[in-house]
Amino acid sequence: MQNAQDQGRRTRWFIDTIDHYCLLIDGLPRAFAEMMNTFESKLFLMYQRPKEIISKAKQLEERRESPIEQGTQEDSDLIKTVKQLAMRDRFIFLDQVLGTDTRERETTLTALTELPASIFLNLVANYDALLCDLLFISLDSNPDVLNRSKCKLSFTDWSTMISEGDGKEQLIEMEILRILRMGYQEQLCEIQTIVLGAPRDIKGISESFPSWTTFLELTARRHLFAHNRGRVTRSYLQNCKDLPEAEGVELHHILPLDQVYLESAAECLFQFGTRVWWLVWRSTFNEDIMECDNKLNSIAYELLCAERFVMAESLLVYPVKMPKGRHQIPAEVEEYMFFNYAQALRWQGRIPEVKQLFASVDLQTKPPLYRLAHACLLEDEATALHWLTLCKEQFTGKKSALKEWPLFRAIRHSCGFARLYEEWFNEPFSDEPPRSWIDQIHDRLSKHQDTELLGEE
Fold first, then answer.
1. Mean pLDDT, to the nearest integer, of 309-317?
2. Are residues 194 and 328 in the same domain?
């Protein structure tokens, strides 16, 4: 009974940890974009000199020597023009438009100029914090992991541990600090050897992450903004010389941090953080593999429902293509990961890859759901409805799956689909717009908090 309770608490911790991480990583750039949009809209609404604004916009365009959208007499058109500028140039533009030279204005614009860097550093800090939490629970819970530690102790360290009587916790903290002081590439190699017990394989790690070069440039850029206000150093150029993300960068230039880059960084850190979370959980606690893999697949499902197909693909590409082994994915989870991965490819327009994926399995020996998925994703409506009828039991009581799961995206508005839905649930079919992924996480976390307030497990 005690073991079941411990496993339940541990599962809740891992699930809540990744939900909070996803909420912060995905939410920070979006909150910043909304704030900037609100600020700029209010500014132009209360500013009553459109001709002068447009004149200054054209002057700014000439100085930049790059084409931007031509201004008109409408403030909304000018706002679109401003949003196309790089983040730093937007602040310069706003500074010119405000016109008055007041201390309050300069303070506000200075703070806004520094805000993208703060958001960027906060994104990486959340990744660091997730890594720290995962390392602690792995080292604390599994003696084999702690035995693989490479932490070197001085006599003073050893004496302090004996005198304070909590040597294990101090050893874990020292090991975590040792790993966190490494470069980000080295951190992943160390987790691979210590936590996962696998041989060091940097090539294997780099090939398993689609955003590997983005991650290397991102972490190098983080160092510049943490220590050099974003100004390019020789070290950055040396470390990123072969990366496409750093192409054209020159020494001593200040790197930009626009909205596009912040969102790209957030997606990359989401991919890396989620992968490390998944690997650490299932490697440290083998008895939790079903819960761990189910949670990973449910995150991918939510991303698909929110039409975040690239992020869903980044989550599932490794599990789907992972070689069979001792800790392979349970069959009942594996098939849904397969379907969701195929959807992530299909709704990005990568139909040849979807065909190739289904060609890798023998559909004749698979359950009917495979043939249903195959027909839906290739938009064979008649065949899809046939197999959907045969899969009725699997969708009993699952109205939301029929309404939300993008598997049925191509056939959902057909008369045959609506007729089946009405026969099964005794109500007319009504389509629902995709819900924001962040809203889904908010709802889940608030339910957990309400349960805790009521004293329920």
1. 91
2. no
